[in-house]
Each structure stands twice: as C-alpha cells, then as structure tokens.
Amino acid sequence: MFKSIFDTVWAFDLEWVPDPASGRLVYGLPDEMPDADVIAAMWAHGGATPEEPRPYLKTALCRIVSVAVVARKRNADGTVSLKLHSLPEDTDDPPPEGAMLARFLDGVSKQKPQLVGFNSSSSDMPIIFQRALVNGLSAPSFCRPASRDGKEFMGYMSKYGDAHVDLKGILSGWGKAVPSLHEIAQACGIPGKMGTDGRDVVDLWLSGDTRRVVEYNEFDALTTYLLWLKTARLAGFFTAGEYAEEEERVRVMITAVSMQPRHAHLSAWLEAWERLSARRKR
Fold first, then answer.
1. How large is the greatest C-alpha to C-alpha distance in the chain, in angstroms?
2. pTM score, whole prediction
3. What stretches of 122-164 show up as alpha helix (H) in DSSP?
4. What's residue 73's pLDDT?
5. Dist. CA 227–CA 192, nearest whole Å
C-alpha cells in the first residue's frame, strides 16, 4: 500500500502497438513491406499459434500511440483541481512517438507527480523507459533514483517509495486472484472498458482511427483514477465526506470536458458510471 498522497497525482494509461520500424530492423524485413505485413511477421516471430495468433510482444518492439492522464492537483490554497489530458491532441495528424513521449516526460519532470497505474510496473513503466531509449530522449527525472530531499529526482523506477503506485500489485499481486482492470472496475461500479478492447487497438491504428484509440485510452485513465480514489479511501486517506467530494469533482470535470467535440464520448462513460454506481448500491 502507498504511504502518502502527493500534492500532484497522475493516474495514467498508455496504448501501444507493434512498431513496424523496429520490426524491420530486428527481423531484417524490407523497408517497402507494408506495416500490416511487418506486424504479422512480428507476431510470427513472437510465437503466434492458431490459438493465439497475436501474442504479446516485447514492449521494446512496440510504439506508444496514445497517452492519457487524469491529473489531480492540491493547490497552495488547499483547493483541489482535476484535469484530463490526452495525447495525441490532433488525432488526424498525430505526432511522432518520440515527440509525444518527450512531452509526457517533460510534464513529469516539471510537475513531479505521483504516478498511478494498473499493471504499470510490468508494462507502462518499462515501455516508457525502453521507447525513450529507442527515440534517443533524455529523461533524468524519470530514470534516476530518488534524491534524499525528494525534490530533484523522484525515483519512479524504484520498487520502493510512493513516486509510482501500481494498483494491480496493491490489490492482488500477480497470482490466480488477480483481476483485470475491467473486472475490478465493474465490481466496484466503474465502467471500465466500453465498446473497444485492447486487442482492437492495433487494427484501429492501422486503419488510421487514432481518435478511437485515444477515446479508449481516456476511458482507462478515468477508470484507473476512480479505482485509485477507492483504494485511497480504503487506506484512510479520505473520509466518507472527502471521498464523496472527490467523486463529485470527477463528475464535474467529465461534464465540462464532454461539451468539447474532442471529448463528447465521455458523456456516455459518465452515464455508464452513474448507472453502475446505482446498481452497486442496491
């Protein structure tokens, strides 16, 4: 369990797909080979079978295509603000992976948030590190061990400390009892997945439908944030009244941002949350 809540908390989630550029280099495939064929070859090299035609590939050979963050900030006057951020912002013309990743890491360097994920120790954190390496980035604030005063370097890659919180490890570890994010979320009355599954992301990306990838990513970030709130409430960081206020902040934020065309899909997620929450209370 985490020992503290930082003034700035980022509940985050990433989406990634097999990286054709890496596949061509690692497996000696020609530059002119179509991306879909390269990815099929990568799955074949990764041990594809009729039962599992799309095996999980090593994250170093995948490219990050979306980042979503729910950012909670306790301000100097004691008030709390909540924002949703997602990349790419322009889904019709997404930036290169390196530029998107550099922007995320620059935000980490400046804001020094407590990062909260689900299965992030085994997936999100390693791929950030590996793909930053592939893209030739510099991210000392992300990579270095925590400094003694905790101000310069946070120790995000450390297995100890509160700079990075992996809810999966806290809730169940990695044995037979481990639930998926969707399963534990639904049991708690949180929507989880809606319409799109993680297995769909590569097909959406290949078809150029980055918008739906980002929407799916935002749903997971919101789910992770609400699950963190419940975990923090369980650990005694919020009273019943404070927890109700925190949930209301999420509703207000979603209602506001869903008025923007880019985030119109969030209204359906909010409706699903209200419906599931009501059923959970019965």
1. 60
2. 0.95
3. 124-134, 140-143
4. 98
5. 10
